[in-house]
Amino acid sequence: MKLKTVALIFILAIVFVGSHFFFREEGNQALLLSHFQLFGSSISVARLFVASIVLAALIPSVYFSTRVFGLFKHARTVESSQLLTGDRGSRHFQAAGLLDHGDYEQVLNLLEQDQSHEGIYWRAHALLLLKRPQETLTLLGDRSETAFSYLRVQAQKSLGNNPESTLRNLIAENPATARNAYVELVQFLDAQERWLDCYELVKQMKSHGLVPPEGWSVAYHYQWVLTQVDIAPKRRIEQFQQILKEAPNFVPANLALGDLYMETKSVEKAFRVYEQAFESTDNTVFLERLELFYLGQGRPEDVLSIYRQLLVKRGNASIKFQLGRLYFKLGMFEECDDLLSPLKGRLGHLKEFQWLQACSHMYQGRHEKAVMLLKEMVEGFSPAHHYACSACHFTSEVWQDRCPKCSVWGTSRQQGELSESAPSVVAAPVY
């Protein structure tokens, strides 16, 4: 410790000890409480003394703080110098830490002259995070190591280039361990709607003992079968049945199978599929299919009979809501109002529910009630948007097998059902 530092500490000690003994005397304490004029203001000796002590302590505090920060800066300089000129492994460890803390430029400076595989990897990673994909590709060159290939894929995607060949090479090198490459490639092909390629890759993953993300096998098999419009209906039916053996509650495949039976005039089989699927999934889109058929045949009494039987069996809010919508379509406004009014506590937050009630009141001449309900509705509501995704609540006019917003299969439900317990999603989102 330097002599001036010791002297400063010694002087401060003398001041504090002397002050202690000085103010023990009663006369000195009275002096401490006395006032005098300073620049036209009255101030006590005690306040002046305290201010002097604080100022005296502040000066050495600033001095010592400056010294400590200087020592820290010197230590970091020495450490950086050692890393730049010392052990290569230490530099790589430091680079990983800098990446974690977002100091990407520091990584490039630290490993500027490092031409080892590890050094090039960390520099390429930093360049990629700095959104400099072309420099990343230049640095990686034609190196074929697995870690370099994944960085190359990300750089190619950032530039809008096709990474398919790189990913397929990764898979070909070791198909039993390249799960990440499989997933990356399936996601890329999904965006291009190359369903057969996606399905084949998922099957290849399973054949090598790799577990694909949940639902991919079912979903891509389904998407591929949908595109096979030229094959015989019997073969397509077999494919949908095969899908449903793996996932019996997969709503899109059940619906597609029932629709295909309808197209081939196998009405009874279609009804059986719709009814069984509704029993297992509670998705009223199957009831809507039955409703459309009977209304198209001019037989509304048949679908009303089906709904009333279901109400006796279950009587849940989603069935009542569906029946209320049917009453409205048929102009049975009083019946619609009587059925929906008790559901206000459970479904009153749904805009379509409010719209149905408001229109029922209006057609029955209760205009004030209709206007009051309409005022509660938010702007931009469309009564046609009565389907919503149970995962992200995206609304649409028609039922969709896959939500266009969150990319989940089998989540499209009528809005009246969202207050009911929905079955678990069979197919998870890709992205």
How does this structure look, described?
By secondary structure, the protein is mainly alpha-helical. The protein folds into three domains: 3-85; 101-161, no CATH class; 213-417, Tetratricopeptide repeat domain (Serine Threonine Protein Phosphatase 5, Tetratricopeptide repeat, Alpha Horseshoe). It has helices at 3-22, 26-33, 45-85, 88-100, 104-110, 117-129, 133-140, 146-158, 164-173, 179-191, 195-207, 216-227, 233-246, 251-263, 267-281, 285-296, 300-313, 317-329, 333-340, 344-347, 351-363, 367-376, and strands at residues 35-38, 41-44, 387-389, 395-396, 412-414. Strands 4-3-5 form a three-stranded antiparallel β-sheet, with no helix packed on it. A two-stranded antiparallel sheet has the order 1-2. The protein is flat. Mean pLDDT is 79; it is low at 80-86 and 419-431.
